[in-house]
Amino acid sequence: MPSPLVTKLREVTAVSRRMERHLATALDVNATDLFAMEHLSRLGSSTPSELAAELGVTSSAATFIVDRLAAQGHVSRERHPADRRKTVVAPAAESVRQVAGMIRPIAEGLNDYIANMSVQDQDVVEAFLDTVIAIYRSATEEGPAPGSPVG
């Protein structure tokens, strides 16, 4: 029988997947397109080749993803500010607002909870999560995170 912590980690994974499906449904995109939008929302913009590398897909696959997202109005293509030969993909402000509105209650709830934890408890949780991340990375052949306790 798994420990209660392992059971809770499985539950976090399950509810995270449900949240991703909820976001994808609300935006009418597939999981890969949602991951692309998350990346673009985080960075503000990206070249198609950077997006391909982030998603772990070919350049042509990234082009198809950008085409789908652009057709739905979730992204736009713009000229690269420094290299006019390149294209930059930028997320649509309305799509970013929609996702932010859906994620905001989660982020605020977590931030409030963390703010009320002692520094010592935060350190313990951070160390635990660092180890969990390192174990996942190791299992996916990414290798451990820099400075992680597992390696």
Largest sheet: 2 strands, antiparallel
CATH architecture of the domain at 4-92: Orthogonal Bundle
Helix content: 55-70%
CATH names the topology of the domain at 4-92 as Arc Repressor Mutant, subunit A
> Per DSSP, what share of the residues sits in E-state strands of 2 or more residues?
5-15%
Q: How many E-type strands? A: 2
Q: Can you identify the CATH superfamily of the domain at 4-92?
A: Winged helix-like DNA-binding domain superfamily/Winged helix DNA-binding domain
Spans of at least 5 consecutive residues whose pLDDT stays below 50 are: none
- Report the structural category: mainly alpha
Strand order of the largest sheet: 1-2
Q: Rounded to an integer, what's the Rg over CA atoms?
A: 18 Å
Topology diagram in text:
Elements: H1 4-27, H2 31-43, H3 48-55, H4 59-71, E1 75-79, E2 87-91, H5 93-115, H6 119-139
Antiparallel strand pairs: 1-2
Helix pairs in contact: 2-4, 3-4
